[in-house]
Amino acid sequence: MLTFAVNLLFVSGQILIRKREFELFQLLQIPMLFIFGVCIDLGMFISEPFLLHDFLLNAAPASEWSFAVYASRHAELLFGCLVLASGIVLQLEANTLLLPGDALVKDFCGKYGFEFSKIKMSLESLLVISSLILCLTSLHELRGIREGTFLAILYVGTTIRLIRGRIRKRTLADCPARLSKRKKK
User: Fold this and answer.
1) Phi/psi of residue 143, each to 5°?
2) What CA–CA distances, in Å, run from 124 to 95, 117, 130?
3) What is the DSSP letter of 24?
């Protein structure tokens, strides 16, 4: 429920940023949240038997498994971040419906001229730090936040910037008219 409430705040933020330019079809982000949540749960359920760290846990002696598990989880994190960043870039370039957090970042960047990946990393860092503070003040311990959380922010943001840069470079190279307009700016 808290995640849903935060995402409603993101939609409200989009309305505040875009004002009369806010398109009503963007409200479809709200039911999309439910579909997104189901897809995450389903993906976790389907992939659980195939997670690399489980295979390594069963195959490696107890004295060696911690490094093997840590390395495999890092590899899974890298792969997941690559897939996530690629999906976000495809949605941005196709100008399709985004999840509320990404749509808020897109609208903010569109209005104020910032780079999407930097603002995305900033927003996600702010959210994680807020979660960290809430966790420490209410539970008096960390739960669900470790170094992988911060690495994911860095990996996704950097990958988005790299992929979008390559797409734009290729698009400019394929279209001389765009290149000449860009040089004039």
Assistant:
1) -140, 125
2) 21, 11, 10
3) G
